[in-house]
Amino acid sequence: MTGYRIIVDKDACEGIFACLTRDPRFVEGEDGLATIDPASDPVPPSGTDEGIIREEDGRIVAEFDDDRADEARQAATACPPGAITVEEC
Ligand code: SF4
Asked: Which helix (H) or strand (E) holds 63?
């Protein structure tokens, strides 16, 4: 298990949704921009953490303690404007 934090900068997000093809926890929010909802994953791997998710200063901040950091990093790499940050915590 690895603790990690996903940050989505909504000011930078352009609603392209390359992220959700890499990590199904990313979804389209009511504002047409990306947000994070672990319950949206139809087939979550065993041991998946529901995480702690909050919105602050125009950013979605989600903290998890599971083995899915690589999925989140792939979403971050795929995001054209670089709106997603993944860091250990
Ligand atoms: S890939 Fe990036 S720009 Fe596109 S919806 Fe996801 S966070 Fe937003």
From this structure: strand 59-66
Sign of dihedral through CA atoms 4, 27, 58, 78? Answer: positive
| CATH assignment, 2-88 | 3.30.70.20
Q: Is 83 in the pocket of ligand 1 (CB under 6 A)?
A: yes
pLDDT, tens only, 24-51 = 999 999 999 999 999 999 999 999 999 9
**6: Cβ below 6 Å to ligand 1?**
no
pLDDT at 21: 96
Q: Give the Å distance between the CA of 46 and the centre of ligand 1.
A: 26
Query: What distance in angstroms lies between residue 19's CA and the mean position of ligand 1's atoms?
Result: 6
pLDDT band (50, 70, 90) for residue 11: very high
Domain boundaries, the chain: 2-88
